[in-house]
Amino acid sequence: MKIKIGIFLVIVLTWLLISCATTGEYMPLRASEQAAILGAVQSTFSVNGGFRYKRTVNRQAYITLLTEAQNKYPDINVDIRDISWVVGTMDYANNYEYTAIGKVIKLPINK
Asked: What pLDDT, in 10s, does the model give residues 8-52?
């Protein structure tokens, strides 16, 4: 019986560690895209501790990086690929600071 409880605890602890991810990768650049890489952008953003789901962090990283890319390349239709992010510090209000970096690609003009 103690072995079953021990195995259960290991599974639960492993799940907890995986669900509270501290790094992430999102939207990889596929070889089939054949996009022109213009450069890289970096941004910092905060996410409330109660909403620290990987999907939320991925979305916020994409939004802030895309904003940075549009500011850097105002006259070009751009998108972000190969997004990587890491969690930083937590403030007194349970907000976590993240730093993200991604590649800026030029999108084709639709005619």
From this structure: 666 655 554 555 556 678 888 888 877 899 999 999 999 887 767
**Spatial distance between the Cα atoms of 90 and 54, rounded to a whole number of angstroms:** 16
| DSSP states of 16-50 | HHHHS-SEEEESPPPGGG-PEEEEEEEEEEEEEGG
User: What pLDDT score does 44 carry?
Assistant: 94
Q: Which two tokens stand for residue 34?
A: 């054949």
Best CA proximity match to 104, nearest among 57, 34, 35: 35
In whole angstroms, give the CA distance from residue 88 to residue 43: 12
Query: Domain spans of the chain?
Result: 23-106
Instruction: Give the pLDDT score at 33.
Output: 78
Q: Which two tokens stand for residue 10?
A: 């290991």
